[in-house]
Amino acid sequence: MESNSDIDKAIAVQPATSQETKPEAAQETPQRIDYDAFCKVEMRVATVLEAELVQGADKLLRLTIDVGTEKRQLVAGIARSYAPADLVGKQIVIVANLQPRKLRGVESNGMLLAVGESAEGVVLLTVDRKVDNGLQVK
What we know:
By secondary structure, the protein is of the alpha+beta class. It has a domain at 35-124: CATH 2.40.50.140. The protein has five helices and nine strands. It has helices at residues 4-12, 18-21, 24-27, 35-39, 84-87, and strands spanning 43-53, 61-66, 71-76, 91-95, 101-103, 106-108, 111-112, 114-118, 121-124. The strands form three sheets. A five-stranded antiparallel β-sheet has the order 3-2-1-4-7. Strand 1 and strand 2 (61-66) form a beta hairpin. The N and C termini lie far apart (62 Å). The relative contact order is 0.19. Residues 1-21 have low confidence and may be disordered.
């Protein structure tokens, strides 16, 4: 008969199954798109000029951004992760060629890119040094 310490050692050296080692979100296989479809997504760098809470929404911020050739308004669900004042001056990455969409009655002209959505919130995709607004992400 094996002792408890022998069982503990045997368990400790057992390789974990792939299902145990992957976070739940990483297990999903995303639908793949072809290269031509990806090329249609226009990602650009923009600077946040203004940021404020959307009235009546606890998650939404309204951002005014400079995309190089124009100023735009975006609405993003990042209010639980970022204070409006902390965003002003920050360069972010956006999808610039989305059709406008209303969120809580406020029109959004693009989408910022972020990672996460957990208890810690989201993290914006940014550039690691200042670049010209409107530069396309390649």
